[in-house]
């Protein structure tokens, strides 16, 4: 499994989580959730185009993902924070790829994921400053 395979899996999971969680949100968090879900879909599409250009089959999404119980807005916000942190960590790990093209794609995706994480944190009133999003504690 390549870093791009792992990143695509993270994007699939994020799309699923946003679909499940956004219905519990309103106001700015809801608007940001809708925008970020769209961005995850766009990143997924870029990755699918990458596979097609390479003449390779992209790994398919899972039929479902474990998002736990989302009973209210607070649970939805916590889930989406975890999702954005996970996506950033996944793309950050991809920076260790040895293939320059793969590393560049991971860097582009990591940059987008870091911005998305900051925007989400801002929307839900969490501290935004994080010099290395996705870095293990």
Task: Give a brief description.
By secondary structure, the protein is mostly helical. It has helices at 3-21, 27-53, 73-93, 100-123. The protein has one domain: Up-down Bundle (Ferritin).
* Tally of strands: 0
CATH fold type: Ferritin
Q: Spans with pLDDT under 50 lasting ≥5 residues?
A: none
Biggest beta sheet attributes:
none
What is the radius of gyration computed over CA atoms, rounded to a whole number of angstroms? 15 Å
Helix/strand order, N-terminal first: HHHH
Helical segment tally?
4
Named at the architecture level, the CATH assignment is Up-down Bundle
Q: Helical percent range?
A: 55-70%
- Give the tally of structural domains: 1
Give the topology.
Layout: H1 3-21, H2 27-53, H3 73-93, H4 100-123
Structure, described:
It is a single chain. 66% of the residues lie in helices and 0% in strands. The chain has one domain (3-57, 68-123): Up-down Bundle (Ferritin). It has four helices and no strands. It starts with a helix and ends in a 14-residue tail after the last helix. The chain is mostly helical and 137 residues long.
Record keyword descriptors for this entry.
single chain; 137 residues; mainly alpha; Ferritin; globular; Ferritin-like_SF; DUF4439; Ferritin-like
């Amino acid at each position: 499994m390549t870093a791009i395979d792992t990143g695509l899996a993270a994007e699939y999971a994020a799309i699923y989580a946003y679909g499940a969680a956004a219905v519990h949100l309103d106001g700015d968090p809801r608007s940001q959730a809708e925008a970020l879900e769209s961005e995850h879909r766009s990143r997924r599409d870029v990755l699918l185009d990458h596979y097609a250009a390479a003449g390779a089959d992209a790994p398919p999404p899972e039929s479902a993902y474990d998002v736990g119980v989302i009973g209210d807005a607070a649970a939805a916000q916590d889930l989406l924070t975890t999702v954005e942190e996970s996506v950033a960590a996944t793309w950050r790990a991809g920076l260790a790829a040895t293939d320059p093209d793969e590393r560049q794609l991971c860097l582009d995706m990591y940059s987008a994921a870091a911005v998305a994480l900051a925007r989400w944190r801002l929307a839900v009133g969490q501290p935004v400053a994080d010099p290395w999003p996705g870095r293990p504690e």
